[in-house]
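Q: Hi! First time doing this. I have a protein sequence and I read that you can turn it into a structure. Is that right? Here it is:
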Amino acid sequence: MAVRVVVGLSGGVDSSVAAHLLLEQGYEVVGIFMRNWHDESVIINNECPWIDDSNDAMLAAETLGIPFHVLDMSKEYKERIVDYMFREYEAGRTPNPDVLCNREVKFDLFLKAALSLKADFVATGHYCRREVTHDASGSEVYRLLAGVDQNKDQSYFLCQLNQYQLSKALFPIGHLQKSEVRQIAREAGLGNADKKDSQGLCFIGKVKLPVFLQQQLQPKSGPIIEVPHDPKLFEVTEAMDETAEQTRSYTFTPSMGKVIGTHQGAHYYTVGQRKGLGIGGKALPLFILATDAATNTIYVGQGEDHPGLLRKGLRVMMADIHWLREDLVMSIGEERLYTARIRYRQELSECKLIRRTDALHVLFEEPQRGIASGQFVAWYTDDELIGSGVIA
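A: Yes, that's right. Below is the predicted 3D structure, encoded as C-alpha cells:
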C-alpha cells in the first residue's frame, strides 16, 4: 500500500514541484490549498490573490493528476496569527507571523486535517531538509537542516517546530537550487514554472503591512525624538553581572535627544526601520532605534552604525525557549557556542548561549543591528537548526 502524502499546494512553483517529485518517488499524493484569509479590503490594487493562487494550485494538481481540495482555515488563522500580530504591534513588539503560521497552521491545523485524510506525512515547498538520526538511547531524532540553496534557505521560518511535527514533515525540494526547481517545473509541464515568488504575509497575499495595521490599530500622534550618535549613551555599566547588562534592552528616555517631528502611532513601526518616517534633510538616513508604545514615542538616529541600533546580545525568557533538538536542552549555568540569526536571510553570526535561571542569554561575537523585542532568534550548529526563542 502506497504511503500517502498531503502536500500544501500554495499555487507557487515550489509546492507544485514538491508534489511532482513525491509522485516520481512513488508516494500517493493529495493536494490541499489552505485558504486563510477572507478580507480583501487590505489587498493591494483590489486584487484577490488567494483566488488566483487557488486556481494555480488546482491547475497544478490537474497537470499532475492528483486529487485537490480547498481547506478554509480563515477563522483559525485570524485567531492564531492575525490577532497575535495586532497584539504584538500594539504592545510595541515586532512579531514574525510567518514563523507562527508554520507552527500553528501548516504543521498543526493543516497537519491534523491531513492525518484525518489518512495521510502518513505532510509536505511543503520549503527550502530546508529533514534527516533522521538516533540519540544515545537509540531513539529516533529528527534534524532540521538548512536548504542547499543558501539564497532561499527557509529553515528560520520553521524554527518553532517540534519533534513530532518534524516526524510527519517532508521537504522534497530542500536539496535543490531555485533554478533547478523552475527547470523541473518546465519539464513537468507545470504552468506556474516562471511564476514570481509571493511577497505577502503567510498565505494572505499581497498585503501592505502599514495599511493592514492601520485598519485595526487606530492612529495617534506622538513625538519622534532624535538621539545623537554618542556611544557613551549606550555603554555597558559596571555591574555584578555583565552578561545581564549586555543582553538587556536599552532604556530610551526623552532627555536623550530632541523632538524632530511627529508620527501617527508607535505601533506602526519597528526597530531598524528606515522608511516611512517622512523626515528629510539629515546628513545620514534616519533609522528607528526604539519604540515606546506606553508613551507613544519613537526614537531615531542617523546612520546604520548608530550605537543605539547595535546590541551585543539579547535574552529569551524561560517560557519562550524552544528546542527542536530536545536531546540538546541546556542546563542552568551551562554555556555553549552556536551561530544564530534574528531574521530571515540574515547571515549566521557566532554567539555564546548562557543558560540562567530566569532566561537564556545570547551574546554575539559582533554587535547585531536592529534587535527587536518579539522577533525570533534561532541558533544553529553548522547547517542544523537546534533551537529558537522569542526575544524579550
